[in-house]
Design brief:
heterotrimer, A mainly alpha (about 280), B alpha/beta (about 230), C alpha/beta (about 575), A: about 280 residues, two-stranded antiparallel sheet, about 75% helix, C: alpha/beta, six-stranded mixed beta sheet, four-stranded antiparallel beta sheet, about 10% strand
Chain lengths: ~280, ~230, ~575
């Protein structure tokens, strides 16, 4: 074990917070559909990457500003989410089978990406893509900061919606006891379509942030599955703020493990946490 | 106002109903009694849209509501206090009550109805910010009734409000039900506790093995041999 | 067990074994090897996950343990290759058992949580191997490793190893499928709690299945190490292995011993067809699409669909000829006059039995005894603790306090299957049949595991008798979902009887039945008692309680408030108050 300098340690923690923001942003939609719709949507990861690639395409080929692509992608993916929910509810898919079906979707999305954009690495180049500034010796990259801010903004927006609007409360009620919710006039079908649309739209937003920050390659899709699942389980299924908090905890722990041991040890942090979570706090899931 | 004609309900594992006909008139408090497993809960859940009907019809205020979507029953004016309460346990008491008034018509008068519910159940007022799941059984029952009242229904369905509650609390509960009915709301009450139910109801049905065994005015029901046979086997 | 099928597996294996000597091109040997490889992986996965329903996404971990076991021992330390294979099997099996010993203790880690947990194990194992001396980062070369000569060439030898592994795996899969052990695993799949109550030692069985499944995956890994000859962590522990085996099994039918092999052949050929050109991308997309279509339209897989279709034809034929004895007698059952006098010998003694849930005492200090040959009625208002009492005496719940002494032995605190083996059986108020077993299989399963146990053949024969007793012979090959409520209730009875219990607990068997069906059931219960079975009878249909019981016990708020002769007890004021409410008392 090597003891790093304080500055290096702080810089690592900062980057851990940023990557945690990314985890939280991807985990938000995944956890909502898992907790409230009882669907384990593996395709969420596929949608994140698809959105990232589409954003990349619009920026590099059509010259649109990356943040503006959000205005196109979010509604588009909302529609995809609605369609997916329609299909799954039409066939009355069980939670476990939803995992398998959406895995099928993910493989198809991966193939599509590979066909259109090839398996080569792609990096979105934009005006603020490389920008960073310095605060007291620490580098703050703009895209990462943007991701974190968006993650916080969305998490609190969802939290507020769940807590203060009737539709949000109805969604929670529906997840707790669907038939009774229906007996008080809550239209489950409609709300499920809406919720699924919102979750997939969140995947689109995460995808744009992902493209701004990371290099894209289709085979990377599955490497995010484990960590984000850990984040969602740790944060609590259906929770709005939980995934972000858990994401930052895991991101920072990984970053510290990287500095203290070696970068290749990082995955053990999140997965050990996930295993312990599953074994000792299964009540939450 | 409510007329259920020749209902046949058979699904899954729950007790089934055969050829059950009941009616509730405006302002009445009608009671359905019968031993456990006779189909009381199946009946009341069917009237709230929670079960689908195989045969027969449900007519409410002149409209046939037998085949409308489950979430439309509330809009039609029927609200249920389900067996073992089934509150949204992970949500606060206030949120549970607000969800009772989810539909626009009820929502418009949410504040006013909430006041009425709190006046009826003063204990609920202090519990508003607490999680519904953390309340005692009696308090949960009050919230469950409150939630149904928040929908401003024209017919209130109550399924075993005394279940699992201590005797003194049962008394309070029935007093509240009496007041609700006295204020003009029609009530259909399903109860195992025959004597308590009879003290409130004007008419009663005895359900036994999925059929209506008898019906009549409530006051002399307790002395009828059918009751003793159904409950005590004597 | 069908000897023909087993010989068939070996005969086909032998036929494939001569191929290398016929001068088949090396390319075909490699292709067929890959086929065998996937058959071993998919079929071995199925032995745990398909049979018990514990879907593992961690098959890659056990496969990887085998690969690295063999690669490290042969490539790094220099063991002879054949010696590494048993080691690979052992390492993988030990890993699996170690994991299972912990995970299977946590009752709620089922379904998707189990899948996720095993997936996480894969990544943890990968990280450990990558960062320790086992791999260390660069991977392990096995170029210099001597491959035992099993065929005319090196590729032929690997082919032969794959073939042997595949034949062995299929044979094991079939033997388990056709055995009592396999029946227990399928029962766990359908309803683990009921399986345990019916006498299946679920914990042990799951561990055995996991050990076999992991060991075979380890074997596949060990052989694969020399096939690929260069082993890296990122290739070994990729998500491809678990997902492919899940897909293959689901596609072929995970409830069938050979289903996963069918899926493996199909997917491997499909992928090969597409990769031999520029269409690899389409191949993957096709795999994804097939998965979606299979889950949506035929969730039980190809072989599952075939079985369903065959069953559909046989039951359609049966329905056209309903036997005469099914027409219910509508004559009212009068009180059965001459009950045989029960002995005074005590069969079950319950002392101070208490069960508290979060402070609430569902059963509160109940002391009672059940005498040999009697029907004891257990009654009380809704929520009075009757169901909890049955759950305690069947071993499903462990009591907070008290003793359950059955034939002189205190069973309190033991696992539920020990209660079943001691001679206690129960029915469920809401029937809980094993949903994917036929009526006959449901009953035979209990005959195998209940009481002293029976072999599969004996059990099937006995099951036919019990089904006839319950009047369900014409539905013997139907699935429970196709039965009506009345038939499902009688299936519950037949199943409980098949355990040949000395104490039978009937939990509201009559609720939901029509009056004439109730009469039929009352007669049947009478006949059960006449065979010498002692019965605890929980019921709300009072005319049945009056007709059948020798004595009754009344519970209220978890405590016993009265016991004795039915008519006397029901006339007691405290009982009337409990039933009809305080105002009456």
């Amino acid at each position: 074990m090597a003891f790093p300098s304080l500055n290096l340690l702080l810089q690592s923690i900062l980057s851990g917070i940023f990557i945690g923001g990314m985890y939280g942003l991807i985990g938000l939609g995944l956890g909502l559909s898992w907790g409230l719709l009882r669907q384990i949507n593996l395709a969420h990861f596929g949608f994140v990457f698809l959105s990232g690639y589409l954003s990349y395409h619009m920026v590099t080929v059509w010259g649109i500003d990356p943040l503006l692509t959000l205005l196109i992608l979010a509604p588009l993916f909302f529609a995809i989410g609605v369609a997916q929910q329609w299909l799954l509810s039409r066939f009355k898919i069980s939670p476990f089978n939803s995992l398998l079906v959406t895995f099928g979707f993910t493989v198809m999305i991966e193939s599509l990406i590979q066909y259109v954009w090839t398996a080569d690495f792609r990096k979105l180049q934009s005006t603020y893509g490389e920008e960073k500034f310095k605060i007291g010796g620490l580098f703050v990259p703009v895209p990462e900061l943007l991701t974190l801010l968006l993650a916080i903004l969305l998490a609190f927006a969802v939290w507020a919606a769940m807590r203060f609007t009737d539709i949000g409360k109805a969604m929670r009620a529906m997840a707790e006891d669907g038939p009774i919710a229906a007996a008080f006039g809550i239209n489950q079908r409609l709300l499920s379509l809406l919720l699924s649309g919102v979750c997939v739209a969140f995947a689109a937003i995460a995808g744009v942030c992902f493209a701004l920050t990371f290099t894209l390659t289709p085979t990377q899709i599955f490497s995010w599955v484990g960590v984000v699942f850990a984040v969602v389980m740790l944060g609590g299924l259906g929770s709005a703020i939980g995934p972000l908090v858990a994401g930052i905890i895991i991101g920072v722990s990984e970053a510290i493990a990287m500095v203290l041991f070696a970068p290749s040890w990082a995955p053990i942090v999140s997965f050990s946490l996930l295993i312990l979570m599953l074994l000792f706090r299964p009540g939450r899931a | 106002m409510l007329e259920a004609n020749n209902l046949k309900v058979a699904y899954g594992a729950a007790p089934a109903l055969w050829d059950v006909s009941i009616h509730v008139d405006t302002g009445e408090l009608v009671c359905v009694v019968g031993p456990n497993g006779a189909g009381k809960t199946t009946l009341i859940n069917t009237l709230a849209g929670l079960n689908r009907v195989s045969q027969g019809s449900i007519v409410f205020h002149g409209a046939d509501i037998t085949r409308i979507a489950p979430h439309k029953f509330c809009q039609a004016g029927i609200a249920i206090v389900p067996e073992s309460r089934r509150l949204f346990a992970g949500m606060t008491v206030l949120e549970n009550l607000e969800l009772g008034s989810y539909l626009p018509a009820a929502k418009a008068r949410r504040r006013e109805t909430l006041e009425q519910v709190c006046a009826l159940f003063p204990a609920v007022r202090q519990k508003l910010p607490m999680l519904a799941g953390s309340l005692s059984g009696g308090q949960q029952q009050m919230v469950a009734i409150g939630r149904a009242l928040m929908a401003r229904p024209r017919l209130l369905l109550l399924d075993e409000p005394s279940l699992g509650l201590a005797p003194s609390i049962v008394m309070d509960m029935f007093e509240a039900i009496r007041r609700i009915n006295a204020d003009g709301l029609s009530v259909l009450l399903v109860e195992q506790n025959v004597s308590m139910a009879m003290a409130l109801a004007s008419r009663a049905y005895v359900l036994e093995e999925g059929r209506i065994a008898m019906e009549g005015p409530a006051n002399d029901l307790l002395q009828r041999p059918e009751i003793r046979k159904a409950y005590l086997g004597l | 067990m069908n000897k023909v099928i087993l010989s068939g597996i070996f005969a086909i294996g032998l036929a494939f074994a001569v191929l290398p000597w016929l001068g088949v091109p090396a390319f075909w040997e490699s292709f067929l090897y890959l086929l065998f490889h996937w058959i071993v992986l998919a079929v071995s996965w199925n032995i745990l996950s398909g049979y018990t329903g514990y879907f593992s996404f961690g098959h890659g971990a056990f496969f990887g343990a085998g690969i690295y076991g063999a690669a490290y021992l042969a490539g790094t330390i220099g063991w002879p290759f054949l010696a590494t294979l048993p080691a690979a099997i052992l390492v993988a099996a030990a890993l699996g058992v170690g994991l299972g010993a912990v995970v299977f203790r946590v009752a709620r880690v089922r379904g998707e949580l189990f899948a996720l947990l095993t997936l996480a194990i894969t990544f943890v194992l990968a990280t450990i191997i990558l960062n320790t001396r086992i791999d260390g980062g660069p991977g392990i070369y096995l170029i210099g490793v001597d491959i035992p000569k099993l065929g005319p060439s090196q590729s032929a030898s690997i082919y032969m190893m794959g073939l042997i592994a595949a034949v062995a795996t299929l044979a094991i899969s079939y033997i388990i499928y056709a055995s009592k052990f396999g029946t227990g695993l399928f029962a766990i799949h359908d309803d683990e709690d009921v399986a345990e109550v019916m006498g299946v030692p679920t914990y042990r069985y799951k561990l055995y299945a996991l050990a076999v499944s992991c060991g075979l995956a380890g074997l596949a890994g060990g052989i694969h190490a020399v096939f690929i000859s260069y082993v890296t962590v990122s290739e070994t522990f990729s998500i491809a292995v678990p997902l492919s085996v899940v897909l293959m099994s689901i596609l072929g039918g995970s409830r069938h011993w050979i289903g996963p092999a069918v899926g493996a052949v199909f997917i491997t050929c499909l992928l090969y067809f597409f990769t031999s050109g520029d269409y690899a991308v389409f191949g993957r997309a096709m795999v994804g699409l097939i998965l979606v279509i299979v889950i949506l339209f035929m969730p039980s897989g190809v072989l599952g669909m075939i079985a369903q279709w065959r069953r559909g034809r046989s039951t359609a034929a049966a329905v056209t000829a309903p036997p005469a004895h099914e027409t219910a007698s509508t004559a009212a059952v009068v009180r059965l006059a001459n009950k045989p006098a029960p002995s005074t010998e005590v069969l079950l003694q319950v002392r101070g039995l208490t069960k508290a849930f979060a402070g609430l005492r569902a059963v509160d200090n109940v002391t009672l005894e059940v005498r040999k040959g009697e029907i004891l009625g257990l009654i009380g208002p809704n929520g009075s603790g009757k169901s909890t009492f049955i759950n305690l005496v069947s071993g499903h719940f462990k009591p907070t306090a008290g003793e359950i002494i059955f034939e002189g032995q205190n069973l309190a605190g033991l696992d539920a299957h020990r209660f079943a083996q001691a001679g206690i059986a129960r029915t469920y108020q809401i029937p809980r049949p094993f949903s994917q077993m036929t009526v006959l299989e449901n009953v035979a399963m209990v005959a195998m595991f209940g009481g002293t146990g029976m072999s599969r053949a004996e059990a099937t024969q006995a099951a036919e008798e019990f089904i006839a007793f319950a009047g369900l012979s014409h539905r013997a090959h139907a699935l429970p979902d196709d039965l009506n409520l009345h038939q499902r209730k009688f299936l519950e009875l037949a199943r409980a009887l098949a355990a040949r219990p000395r104490l039978l607990m009937l939990d509201e068997v009559l609720s939901g039945l029509t009056p004439s069906e109730i009469n039929e059931a009352i007669e049947m219960i009478q006949r059960i008692r006449d065979r010498g079975t002692t019965i605890i009878f929980v019921e709300h249909v009072m005319r049945a309680v009056m007709a059948l019981t020798d004595r009754i016990v009344v519970l209220n708020y978890g405590a016993m408030i009265a016991q004795g002769n039915a008519t006397d007890v029901m006339n007691e004021e405290s009982v009337k108050a409990a039933y009809l409410g305080k105002a009456h008392a």
